[in-house]
Amino acid sequence: MSASELATQVGLFSIVTMWFALVLRARPALRQPHQRGLWLTVLAAAVAITLFQPEVVGRLTHVGVEVHTVALTRNLIGVLSAGLVLLFMVDSTRVRRLRLTVAAGLTTVMGTLVALDLLQGDHPRESVTSVQGPADPAFSYWLILIVAHLVGDAVALVVCWSYSLRTGDRDLVWSLRLFAAGSVLALVFWCGYLWHLYGGTSAMLPYLSLIIGVHGCIRAASLLVPTATALVRSWSALRVTWRLWPLWRDLVSAVPQVALSSPQRTRLQEVLRPRSPLALQAHRQTIETYDALLDLQRFVQPGAYEEAHRHARRAGVPEHRLAAAALAGALGQARRAKLVDAPPSVPRPLPGVEHGSPATLLGIARMWPSMTDALPWHDERVDAVAPPHRE
Known about the structure:
- It is a single chain.
- By secondary structure, this protein is mostly helical.
- The chain is built from 15 helices and no strands.
- Helix 2 (33-50) packs across helix 9 (205-254) and helix 4 runs parallel beside helix 7.
- The longest helix has 50 residues, at 205-254.
- The chain starts with a helix and ends in a 6-residue tail after the last helix.
- The relative contact order is 0.08.
């Protein structure tokens, strides 16, 4: 695959990724002031990168739009993107004068580019403008354009990286560092673009397109960090709900007073039609399972844990799962005792479940199907009050 073909594919992928991220994050980002600036910055970058792709420019020219018009629009939106980056950075300082200074500078730069373009109106634009070149070949025009980008990206790199070292919010840390990485690629792109315009060859353009395409992907990733975190949390909650369900269902059926609502008929219904958000449901099932476990400790038979441990070892259970298997066996026996209304005794705490960690409960749930009926239920107190057997 040639560099040009690779750049085309990466460029198209970056466009799709950026617009997907913008649509997905539009509603939550626009509602939160601290995310709104980032969203608008990525929006401007997405438009500029879209108009940088030769295939997009070709389609626009096919419907009658001049290459010069596309290039001028791309340049102005690119400068707007750099200015929005600066505004996004200085907004956290809450210094109104600094925000006004950046806004005034951005307006001045964009106005200057338009004025320089109008002053070159007598030049045959189609002959001096390439598909990926600046709207105007004048030295002052593209120097202002590139310096504006270099300043914006350099400030973004320094500020984002320094802020990421100070905050404890993991989402914010990743967003800032990804944004800083995107700024590094943007700096490389504009330095290469400056070299291309000053004395380089057109052979550089595919590599510059590749760099700006990867830059777009990283910008999209910085916007998608909260979504990615939410997906990871949802997946973790779904995993807990799915794996814990058989144990939770059986324990709360024996100790129904610990459950806020009864289990649904199948665990597929429990995850596809949850009666509360998945994270809350996983948390609730964990607490209810632990509460039921504490109640069932009143029905644990003497030596049940040790007997279940020996049974699991004989059955070939791996060493690292023996403790969970023994707990599952002892709990299974206690559950059956509770279901037949056996009289409770002084609670016999089971080892390893003092704090009810999710990992411990998931380990018990893993062994529950094979160990729940491993031990026969036998109440010594019933034997003690039973009449002696006579021949």
